[in-house]
Amino acid sequence: MRKKVTKAIFPVAGMGTRFLPATKSVPKEIMTLVDRPLVQYAIDEARAAGIKEFIFVTSRGKGALEDYFDHAPFLEQELRKSGKTDLLDALKATNMESGAIAYIRQHRALGLGHAVWCARRLIANEPFAVILPDDVIAAETPCLEQMIDAYEETGGNMVAAMEVPADKAASYGILDVEEDMGSVVSVKGMVEKPEVGKAPSNLAVIGRYILSPSVLTNLNKMKSGAGGEIQLTDAIAQDIGTENTVYGYRFRGQRFDCGSKAGFLQATVAFALARDDLRDDLLRYLQEMVQLDKAAQ
Ligand code: UTP
């Protein structure tokens, strides 16, 4: 039997410069989509996939993120007294079991690969998930749950993959596909941020991974790659062709790049339109805006 994936790393030590000045004092992961911070979407997805241990790789200035997971007994008591059970339930979903959550500091922002490596002692020798909270995925079955189901068949390393237009490939890690089996593809190479026209496929890696501990061993020996950062993609690619080879997984769902302003705004609209209490008013407003914009042209 394959070892169950029960640990997840959430690398949140980046500086979030694309959201300055907001991220001067608010961690990007605490910014809200409708009424939940990005990190809550990530935690809910991990829980649905059976994750029991949540490891955050943080940095200076991320205190608000740690506070977010503290219990709030006074607030809970007030909501209970006033019979606001919906809000009480929403609040309880933010509570973490004592000891289930750990914070590791990445002392220097040396890249995503380095951030994952910082958590190596808490992972030890078992497969683990990595979730980037700024990739938010709307899906009927949460993306990580889909991947864990597929991983139970394949083992090895698995990365979430999504088709991107050729002119966007240079912003992603791109898979060189060996065999396309439908939702799962086996991989013979991975290129981080390929030059325009040099991408080996249109399948891009996005922020969900199930990794073998061998990736941590690879990271032990890594030097910086593209952009002077220690790239996670490079460490995963070193496992290709070994017993822990690499698979891409075409997930069912829509991914929003909430690390960018455009992606964040799109996600805000999409998640608000999915809410019964907001949909009608928002839709009416958006339609009016489109009409006004057309009239102005
Ligand atoms: P990004 O490339 O989005 O960087 O990192 P960033 O710093 O968060 O944002 P910008 O580009 O300055 O606006 C992708 C993920 O990797 C984490 C980030 O926190 C984010 O979840 N990361 C990146 C680290 O944890 N450490 C790093 O050294 C770099």
Structural description of this entry:
With 297 residues, the chain is α/β, with parallel strands linked by helices. It has a domain at 7-155 and 207-224 and 251-259: Alpha-Beta Complex (Spore Coat Polysaccharide Biosynthesis Protein SpsA, Chain A), CATH 3.90.550. 34% of the residues lie in helices and 24% in strands. It has 11 helices and 13 strands. It has helices spanning 38-48, 63-68, 73-81, 85-92, 112-117, 120-123, 143-154, 214-220, 232-237, 261-273, 279-296, and strands spanning 7-11, 32-33, 36-37, 53-58, 101-105, 128-131, 135-138, 157-163, 173-180, 184-192, 203-211, 246-250, 254-257. The strands form 3 sheets. A 5-stranded mixed β-barrel has the order 8-11-9-10-12. Strand 2 (32-33) and strand 3 (36-37) form a beta hairpin. It starts with 6 loop residues before the first strand and ends with a helix. The chain binds uridine 5'-triphosphate. The site of uridine 5'-triphosphate has 20 residues, from helix 5.
CATH architecture classification of the domain at 7-155 and 207-224 and 251-259 = Alpha-Beta Complex
Q: Helix fraction?
A: 25-40%
CATH superfamily of the domain at 7-155 and 207-224 and 251-259: Spore Coat Polysaccharide Biosynthesis Protein SpsA, Chain A
The low-confidence parts are none
CATH class of the domain at 7-155 and 207-224 and 251-259: Alpha Beta
Strand order of the largest sheet: 8-11-9-10-12
Bound small-molecule species: uridine 5'-triphosphate
**In the CATH scheme, what's the topology name of the domain at 7-155 and 207-224 and 251-259?**
Spore Coat Polysaccharide Biosynthesis Protein SpsA, Chain A
Proportion of residues in β-strands: 15-25%
Cα-atom Rg, whole angstroms?
20 Å
Number of helices: 11
Reading the helices and strands in chain order gives EEEHEHHHEHHEEHEEEEHHEEHH
The residue-averaged pLDDT reads 93
Number of strands: 13
Which geometry do the CA atoms define? globular
Q: Biggest sheet: strands, sense, closure?
A: 5 strands, mixed, barrel
What is the structural class? alpha/beta
Alpha-carbon distance between the termini? 63 Å
